[in-house]
Amino acid sequence: MKGPSVVIIGSGPSGFYAAESISKKLNSDIDILDRLPTPFGLIRGGVAPDHQTTKKISVAYTKIAKKEQINFFGNIEIGKDISIEELREIYDVVVIAIGSEIDKKLEINGSNLKGVHGSAEFVGWYNGHPDYVNLEPNLNTENVVVIGNGNVAIDIVRVLSKTSEEMLDSDIPEYALNSINKSPIKNLYMVGRRGPVEAKFTNVELREMGNLKNCLPIVNTNLPNKLDGNYSDRDQRIIEKNLETLKNFSSIEKNDKEKRINFNFFQKPIEIIGNDKVESIKFEKTKLEGNELKSTGEIAEINCGLVITAIGYKPKEIPGLKISDGVVTNKNGEIDTGFYAVGWIRRGPTGVIGTNKADGELVADLISKKFKTQTKDG
Ligand code: NAP
Question: What is the pTM of this model?
Answer without folding.
Answer: 0.96
